[in-house]
């Protein structure tokens, strides 16, 4: 195993906003981390850069929409890789343009699998290597009006579950941590600005689970999602209809 006392280096794909930014910020002030790189297409909002801790976060321009992104993406020197990139828009399946369909699959699913493949030697190797990926509760339940997004997240969820078994059976201790959020308003996912103060607790939960070596965490499980998953398991049809009506109301407002 690698020396756990050595300073670590983290790269966060989708680290410019939302949960990824909150995680990057917490890692930057974590005594175990020497270098934190946040990747995305945009600059980090200047109001966050003023926060002392974010002076420690480097920014790297990365767009995972193009499937060739992975060719130039270098993970050497990093022992912590965190994939937070994702997007989705509420709309009927017939109104999702073909380009958006490809992008939904690429950003939420395929680019993650490309990255996991790129890290395969580290994941299977003897040194401590952390890989964290964010999927969604919509990968576990029916999700009308989010059909392509939910399907892409389900692809990612299933891929991680199977890869973890392969890693475990080959004797590796480096299992992938799958983070499963439900609805989180404070990120930029729904188009608003990231409210980073409201995301700190989630970032701490995720980093703690990563350090423990957990393989899955459902955010807000006891408070909300245990009940949601129970309702879905008991009556998927009613669950789907209620979800449809709720989202139709949200699209109107
Ligand atoms: N918020 C929720 O309610 C919710 C619920 C379930 C799951 N999730 C998942 O949680 C993860 C984090 O989302 P969030 O809520 O924190 O949303 P967010 O604030 O919008 O952050 C998404 C991040 O992904 C990056 N990204 C998107 N497209 C990209 C691309 N083509 N190339 C590179 N980076 C890209 C964005 O950076 P740039 O814009 O700078 O490229 C941003 O840093 C996502 O996987 C999302 O699907 C969120």
From TrEMBL:
Annotated protein name in UniProt: Ketoreductase domain-containing protein
Family to which this protein belongs: Belongs to the short-chain dehydrogenases/reductases (SDR) family.
Organism expressing this protein natively: Paragemmobacter aquarius
Residue span(s) of domain Ketoreductase: 8-183
GO cellular component term, pick one: membrane
Coiled coil, from the record: none
GO function terms (MF aspect): oxidoreductase activity
UniProt keyword terms in alphabetical order: Oxidoreductase, Plasmid
